[in-house]
């Protein structure tokens, strides 16, 4: 019998970032069959393609020792999307990535999940820098990056598409909270 990959669980005040399960295909299918989301993380995908994409995320854990987690609300195991440190072959830098189903957007979930992922990357993996690659048209993700203290730092090509590079503050400057936007802490 082949041993399962040991993916650590990360918990925040509201969220649980955990390893992938076959049942998570349903949440990812909801995410990747929504054109408003898929245009930034796409392409839109069938159930079979979503299963393969999830297998890629699990494989990243096996090959790199880290990767994206399934994001769930504490006490509810429904997969809402993903967040985590990501550095597949061909990427120019290590990334903190996130993507959530529409029903989880606009509630601070992405910010909380990405902050937990960045904290993990800095404290457990020893990263000294991280970026988030964000489509210039994806203003919601750009706002999340800003709340995390990231600043726009040029452009890059990811999967043949030009994206903005958002550089996260280094571990010495990154705090355990998020930054104020418009006068209120988000």
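Sequence proposed for the structure above (186 residues):
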């Amino acid at each position: 019998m082949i041993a399962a990959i040991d993916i650590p669980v990360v918990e925040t005040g509201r969220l649980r970032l955990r390893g992938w399960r076959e049942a998570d295909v349903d949440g990812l299918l909801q995410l990747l069959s929504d054109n408003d989301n898929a245009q930034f993380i796409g392409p839109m995908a069938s159930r079979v393609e979503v299963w393969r994409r999830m297998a890629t995320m699990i494989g990243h854990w096996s090959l790199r020792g880290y990767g994206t987690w399934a994001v769930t609300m504490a006490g509810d195991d429904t997969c809402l999307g993903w967040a985590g440190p990501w550095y597949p072959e061909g990427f120019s830098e290590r990334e903190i990535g996130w993507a959530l189903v529409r029903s989880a957007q606009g509630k601070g979930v992405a910010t909380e999940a990405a902050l937990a992922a960045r904290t993990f990357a800095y404290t457990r993996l020893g990263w000294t820098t991280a970026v988030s690659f964000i489509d210039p048209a994806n203003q919601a993700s750009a706002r999340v990056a800003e709340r995390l203290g990231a600043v726009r730092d040029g452009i890059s090509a990811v999967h043949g598409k030009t994206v903005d590079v958002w550089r996260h503050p280094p571990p010495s400057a990154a705090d355990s909270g998020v930054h104020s936007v418009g006068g209120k802490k988000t």
